[in-house]
Write a structure and sequence with these properties.
Length: 620
């Protein structure tokens, strides 16, 4: 590589600083180093300078290397920042990816057994379908709830040698032709020539090195030595406990469905609701218990996408989707999987940050299952302005708007099903469906505002119901716990007029209390777990994750500061029935993590999913 002399007076492109957004690279997640540059005119910037956009005759050249050592380390599949000391032989025999077979201690292996056992069961099922004898693989380590029968092998030495294992970390032929031998038994494999690199399974257990150097466009020579930075060892993406669909109808109540192989049956459809935790809120100050690498958007977006796609939902309602993340990531990525996208970002009367970073609600639906008919947008700020104009004295309007204007919104989509209307009174009739997706105000001391927003939304939905005979779903993060007036209005169609929440109404927006009603026959989907008369291990297990006093999950949001239920999927019970529900999480499912988000689960909320069937509307 030819080096050239600096331009006279130092007027050239200069690298001032290079650092990584996270020192720990994860398989499947992009790494884009932060490169601080100085222009020849003295200006400081961080934009890329490719050859096609050279600055004053200079551009940047990048290289990524995988550093492979003679002593390569396996990493724990549960605690990926820890080295492995144990390997599950059963995983190897049943052809489970070998990276998932490693554990850092016997306690780690024991604690993870409930999740680990599911991997074995799925692998055995797949192998049995291909004619492999069950006794060879499964009988050796048993099928009970204890891990005592599993075969574990201690990896020799404190630094296990993966070259003795089946295929893990054996570096392939380099993408770029040379592997340069270095001192101390290391080989550098060039794996990338762009600023951004995505770690692969071949990188697991290895350190990556990033180099950047300024290049003279005319001479093609470099200016000085490359600036470099090293990562920690690459770790595999953590795998959360698989969640299954649990049937709640009488016919199937004893079974369960594997989401990986399940698709909606004819006449049924699935709906997912999930607050994904916007990156702008995912700070180390708020979530200090979560590793910084697991909080980074580069990691979380891939983990969230894997989870969302894995549910195979026909309709997806997401909250806290940043505007830029919708446009640049979720819409194009889910489009690849057959989804059409609708989006409504929050309003900006209160919000003072970057317009691109503001979040909103996104609704996706499978194009092969539904077509888009109409979209409604609800801006509670506009409703607040209309309300204050109508009932608030002029002298109090500013105070009233300060309390009511919170930038919350709702997105309502009317869809038409493509899978037919068989089993109803009129099979040839168009099967429409109305899906509302909302994120209600979070402030705990504004219970009157929460209730007013929800009442406003329900009144809007009532108008749609009057104009069309249409089943309805109301999904989202309502920031309202079971037993609150907001939950009561949704679930019961009215409020308890003696409820203490109603004592807080400084603007009088809830008066008279008799107006706080609606005529939509809404029922919470997850209350089906509590209402089912059927028995069986799966249903009993789910009921233990329900609050018997409210018939709602024990939690849908789990942080160090709050654990409780604030997310719901409501449906009109006169036109829809619940067929199955995504199983709930408990402490075991969270692998004893004390709070969310975590390396396995990338939001502080859990996803809710329900399968519905359209039914003939009950005539009254």
């Amino acid at each position: 590589m030819t080096q050239v002399k600096p331009a006279p007076g130092g007027r050239m492109l200069t690298v001032l600083r290079v650092h990584l957004p996270s020192e720990i690279p994860i398989v499947g997640c992009e790494i884009t180093p932060y490169v601080l540059l100085r222009r020849p005119d003295g200006g400081i910037f961080t934009d890329d300078v490719p050859e096609a956009s050279a600055v004053d005759g200079y551009f940047m050249r990048y290289k990524w290397y995988r550093i492979q050592s003679d002593r390569r380390a396996a990493v724990c599949s549960v605690h990926p920042t820890e080295q492995a000391t144990l390997q599950c032989i059963g995983c190897l025999k049943s052809k489970i990816p070998v990276a998932k077979s490693y554990h850092c201690s016997a306690k780690c292996f024991s604690d993870a057994w409930q999740h680990h056992k599911v991997l074995h069961e799925r692998a055995i099922s797949a192998l049995n379908e291909n004619g492999t004898e069950e006794e060879e693989l499964f009988g050796r380590f048993g099928s009970g709830s204890s891990s005592s029968g599993i075969i574990s092998a201690a990896l020799s030495g404190s630094t296990p040698n993966l070259s003795q294992s089946s295929g893990v970390n054996n570096g392939p032929t380099p993408v770029y032709p040379t592997g340069t031998e270095k001192s101390s038994g290391e080989t550098w494999f060039e794996v990338g020539r762009s600023r951004t690199y995505t770690a692969t399974a071949d990188d697991i257990g290895h350190v990556l090195r990033f180099e950047c150097v300024v290049v003279d466009l005319e001479t093609r020579g470099t200016l000085g030595a490359p600036t470099s930075v090293m990562t920690s060892r690459v770790i595999p993406a953590p795998t959360p406990t698989p969640r299954r669909l649990i049937p709640v109808n009488a016919a199937d109540a004893m079974g369960h469905f594997d989401l990986d192989s399940r698709t909606s049956s004819f006449g049924t459809f699935t709906v997912l609701s999930y607050n994904i935790l916007a990156d702008t809120y995912a700070t180390s100050d708020t979530y200090s218990y979560c590793p910084t690498w697991a909080l980074s958007w580069a990691y979380r977006r891939q983990n969230l996408l894997r989870e969302i796609i894995g549910y195979h939902a026909d309709i997806i309602c997401l909250q806290e989707v940043q505007n830029n993340h919708f446009e640049e990531f979720f819409a194009p990525e889910l489009d690849k999987h057959g989804y059409q996208a609708l989006y409504k970002r929050r309003t900006t009367e209160v919000y003072a940050g970057s317009p691109q970073a503001i979040d909103g609600c996104a609704t996706f639906f499978r194009r092969d299952r539904f077509s888009h008919v109409k979209k409604y947008e609800v801006e509670f700020n506009k409703a607040a302005q209309s309300l204050t104009d109508a009932i608030i004295p002029a002298a109090q309007k500013k105070l009233a708007l300060n309390r009511l204007v919170k930038d919350n919104i709702a997105l309502i989509a009317v869809l038409e099903a493509k899978f037919g209307n068989h089993g109803t009174e009129n099979p040839s009739k168009r099967q429409l469906l109305c899906v509302a997706n909302t994120h209600i105000n979070i402030h705990h001391d504004l219970k009157d505002v929460k209730l007013w927003q929800i009442h406003t939304l329900l009144k809007g939905l009532e108008k749609i119901a009057v104009s069309a005979d249409i089943p309805m779903l109301v999904c989202g993060d309502f920031n309202s716990i079971p037993g609150s007036t907001s939950h009561g209005l949704l679930a019961m169609g009215k409020v308890d007029q003696m409820h203490p929440d109603l004592a807080v109404d400084p603007l009088g927006i809830l008066r008279p209390l008799s107006k706080l009603t609606h005529q939509l026959p809404l029922v919470s989907a997850y209350s089906s777990f509590a209402r089912m008369a059927s028995v069986g291990y799966d249903l009993d297990h789910q009921r233990r994750r329900m609050d018997p006093t409210t018939n709602e999950p024990l939690f849908t949001n789990c942080t160090r500061d709050f654990t409780g239920t604030i997310d719901y999927i409501f449906y009109t019970a006169d036109s829809l029935t619940v067929e199955s529900l995504l199983e709930l999480l408990d402490e075991d499912s969270l692998r004893k993590d004390t709070a969310l988000p975590s390396p396995e689960w990338s939001s502080d909320h859990i996803a809710l999913l329900a399968e519905f069937r359209c039914t003939p509307r009950v005539r009254r």
